[in-house]
Design goal:
Elements (H helix, E strand, L loop, with lengths): L15 E5 L17 E3 L5 E5 L2 E4 L20 E4 L2 E4 L5 H11 L21 H15 L8 H8 L18
Antiparallel strand pairs: 1-4, 2-3, 3-6, 4-5
């Protein structure tokens, strides 16, 4: 391994959305994602269908910048299928039920409150354990979204850096 190697996570703000999945329920780019195609998956777990997509990537691991003019036609493309994701964060109620059922320590809420508040202070292994437990409890398959799936869902189908555009204003 090289000491000077530095891995940068993909910056989707520099990726071009080239195709949405062919799902009949897919919404056009820029129209956002809504809960009209949502469903309940047990108490408190509302799932939203996210259309699959393909992104043409122009990662700049060398610190340089990439733009449409300099990108080659052979730029890598990352595609993923339509998937479902919870419409809201996992709550302390949800996670505490898992922790108590599996003998895990309850995470500290740092004074923010428990109940329907989003759970905090869980690590990757806790999150994976919760997904596996939820799968066994519900009979459905739960998993964590990939980084690209999460970014795509968080942007609400927009090809911009944020769901509302590329700039972060004071009211956002």
């Amino acid at each position: 391994s090289r000491k000077d190697f530095h891995w940068e996570t993909p910056d989707l703000s520099r990726w071009e959305l080239v195709r949405l999945g062919s799902s009949a329920q897919a919404r056009p780019v820029g129209m956002g994602l809504s809960t009209e195609h949502s469903r309940e998956s047990g108490p408190g777990m509302e799932l939203v269908r996210i259309p699959g997509a393909c992104y043409r990537t122009w990662p700049a691991f060398d610190g340089g910048s990439a733009d449409a003019a300099s990108a080659s036609e052979g730029a890598p493309t990352i595609c993923f299928d339509t998937f479902e994701i919870t419409a809201h964060e996992v709550t302390f109620d949800d996670y505490d039920a898992f922790a108590l059922a599996t003998g895990r320590e309850l995470p500290d809420d740092e004074g923010w409150g428990r109940g329907r508040s989003p759970v905090i202070n869980v690590n990757l292994y806790d999150a994976l354990g919760f997904a596996k437990w939820k799968s066994r409890q519900s009979g459905e398959r739960y998993r964590l979204p990939t980084e690209v799936e999460w970014e795509h869902a968080a942007r609400a189908g927009s090809p911009t850096r944020f769901p509302w555009g590329d700039a972060l204003g004071s009211n956002q």
